[in-house]
Amino acid sequence: AQTVTQSQPEMSVQEAETVTLSCTYDTSESDYYLFWYKQPPSRQMILVIRQEAYKQQNATENRFSVNFQKAAKSFSLKISDSQLGDAAMYFCAYRSASGNTGKLIFGQGTTLQVKP
Amino acid sequence: DGGITQSPKYLFRKEGQNVTLSCEQNLNHDAMYWYRQDPGQGLRLIYYSQIVNDFQKGDIAEGYSVSREKKESFPLTVTSAQKNPTAFYLCARYTSGGTDTQYFGPGTRLTVL
User: Fold this and answer.
1) Which of B40, B48, B92 is opposite residue A101, by nearest beta carbon?
2) N or C, fewer C-beta in 10 Å, chain B?
């Protein structure tokens, strides 16, 4: 069975600085998708970024980028120029590309604090 | 709302009562999911449905039931058999192709009194 681990329960960053959130996963599959979701205090889950495992190029979305290391099964999220609105809980998630069930497996989450 | 709504936002239940949480989507997506979130934890899958009149158990289905009589609706019933039902419940929609991603509703906070 696949598992997702986020080893940093809490992180903090100064406004305008850069922070990296860690995520590792375990799978025997070769084709899959990885996601980072943001959950602000409103508790709405918001997709931040996604990565297809077959793509070597790291995904980027404005100030958000990932460092995808397939061999190491690592998928970290880098937030550049941190803003107060980035304060939230961040979840790493895995989805198999086989079976097409769409099921997501989540990590435990990392709470990010942004200091003004 | 991302094409998916949940109601109510807050729900209170007495012990021993069943309660139904609503989830509706208006984007004609095939698959829908129910997740449970406990404090300080990630989301865990309760049930999911890929087509009308069919659904599958997730990792923590005990004490829950669902139905999928219409494509746009996927209600979750928390039964009295669920021993620790107080949690935050999230519904999601998914369609393959395109962005190939799950999108979530705003959630329902259930509290057992």
Assistant:
1) B48
2) C
